Amino acid sequence: MKTSHAAAVLCTLTGTSLSAAVVGRAATQSNTAKATWNSLGCYTDSVAGRALPYGATTTGGAGAMTNEACQTACQAAGYSIAGTEYGGECWCGNSIGGGAGLAPDGNAQCNMACNGKAAETCGGSNRLTVYQLSTGGTNPPTSEKGKRGLCYNNNNPSKNAVYANMFKGYSKISWAYDWGYPSWDLDAFFEFRQLTTSFPSVPMLWGRPSGAAPDWTAAVQAAGTKSILGFNEPDLTYGGSSNMLPADAAAGHKAYLEPFRGRVQVGTPNVLWNNDVGSSSGGPYNSRVWTQYFLGNCTGCHFDYAAVHYYQDCEPAGRAQDEGAAWFKGNVTNAWNTLRLPLWITEFQCYGSEAQQVRFLQKVMPWLDAQSYVARYAYFGTFPDLLLNHDGTALSALGQAYATT
């Protein structure tokens, strides 16, 4: 389903709840904000629809939770709103979503002490103690920035990141990743922007190793690694997929990714979410069912985000011109409603002429930026005849649209 410049894929996200002791607190408790953060008060929340979509890992973990630790983690991840909940959870975002709002009973149910600082309140049951960066104003913003990235590799005459580096200086491109561990001399422009958005390095475990994987462990434990990506399209059977049964993928996840939970953000396998008809690597059922079987086999696993792919026609035959964009939005919405994890859309592409792809991106990118549950996305791909011109010497018209729209 990919072009001749086939690669793999990756990138998506979310938070899961952490255990914390319930401690009743008096109304006189203090909520300490860092100098650059403003208190927004006590907000409602629900596991069925998170007010803030990104579950952050903080220094010291849930047992050492403070509002300041949560704010630091959220700011490092590129978010402007931080909320603590249930004494030990940290949630981040750039807008309040999920139908949440200021608690109707004020601060009454934001009544749990922070696990790491008893004098502070860290939300409550289904309640968030919320702060916002002062530079963001007093109202939660309506869209996220810094989501747009590049998927690239070293399959070029220079055998390095020369294609990705052509996007240096475009402010809307905030990160880049390769389908593995090395960066192939990715320009410091991207490395800096990755550091400021908590994505200095995003190692991906493309397929399940046959034994010990010391190189993988070293990549995960490298300084600055904040997130790790799981298997690439294990739900499919073509040559560029990792092709696994759901139970085998779950066993591999438990062996090679789950041990790092709490130290880095861990994602689900990268699956082709719009493969909702026909078969998968597991048998005569689609990729969405494959994902449910994987989750059912991965008992006790923790996921901070979900990674999905999408490939489909820009303008399906016999349909209205914007139908392809509507299909894409519907698939992304379905992934969120099904998985309830922040989403990394690490590969997506519509099939069509360059003009059709440009129109598609102009329709979907503003929408992606406005969805608080979409954490990262990367259009396929940083290669000639796609985001680059035929000779691979400059951005194509499609690349210009992706970098500037």
Q: Regions with pLDDT < 50 over 5+ consecutive residues?
A: 1-34, 136-145, 195-200
Task: Please tally the β strands and state the result.
Answer: 15
Oligomer class:
single chain
What summary fits the major beta sheet?
6 strands, parallel
The fraction of residues assigned to DSSP E strands is: 15-25%
Helix and strand content put the structural class at alpha/beta
Order of helices and strands: EEHEEEEEEHEHHEHEEHEHEHEH
User: Taking all residues together, what is the mean pLDDT?
Assistant: 84
Query: Which geometry do the CA atoms define?
Result: globular
- Determine the number of helices (DSSP H or I, runs of at least 4 residues): 9
CA radius of gyration: 21 Å
Give, in spatial order, the strands making up the sheet with the most strands: 9-8-15-14-13-12
Instruction: Determine the N-to-C terminus distance.
Output: 26 Å
Question: Helical residue percent?
Answer: 10-25%
